[in-house]
Design a protein that fits this description.
With 209 residues, the chain is of the alpha/beta class. It is built from nine helices and seven strands; from the N terminus they run βαβααββααββαααβα. The longest helix has 26 residues.
Length: 209
Amino acid sequence: MALRLILSGGIGSGKSTAARIASELGVHVIDADLVGHSVLASDGEAFEQVAELWPEVVVDGEIDRRALGRIVFSDPSRLEQLQAITHPAITSRIERLVDSSGSEVVLVELPLPDDLLGPGWSRIVVDAPDGVRRQRLLSRGMTDDEIRERMAAQPSRREWIELADHVLDNSGSVGELRAQTEALLARLREGSDQAPDEAGLSARPEQQG
């Protein structure tokens, strides 16, 4: 059976960078966000229900995901509504992609704390200080209000750490993240029982804020 990994972390933590590094190291990477895009596309499984609930986000026959984000991330009940529609479709698509991959190591980049994919998966969390994450998001063109709403809708740094089987500290350089990712993947491929802290890969609780 393939080694199944979930890569998570708060917005701006560097999940996509870690996923790219894993792909360069030969891991089959599935981006759950892209799968989410596909289920919200005009021919996707979730399009009609979302368009019916929030017709104002439909522009030229397509869902404006940024407009949808502004609605759901400012209201937890609306976010739950959206997830109830999209999560089953996303899970089904990911399962099909995993089954058809034929890869020994599969990693799903999943920006959610939910146990969406069921048992048999190990969760890697990418961690970075909130201030670092905020600066990264500002550089991408997000506003302060959008950043606050997105971060408030997600677990705190400590909560992410508590969900993790393994932690990658992305408070430093990309080179440092690469070294950690390579070491962790090598250990997991070898089936080592060494704890994350012993490998120097887990952020220490006193570093969390």
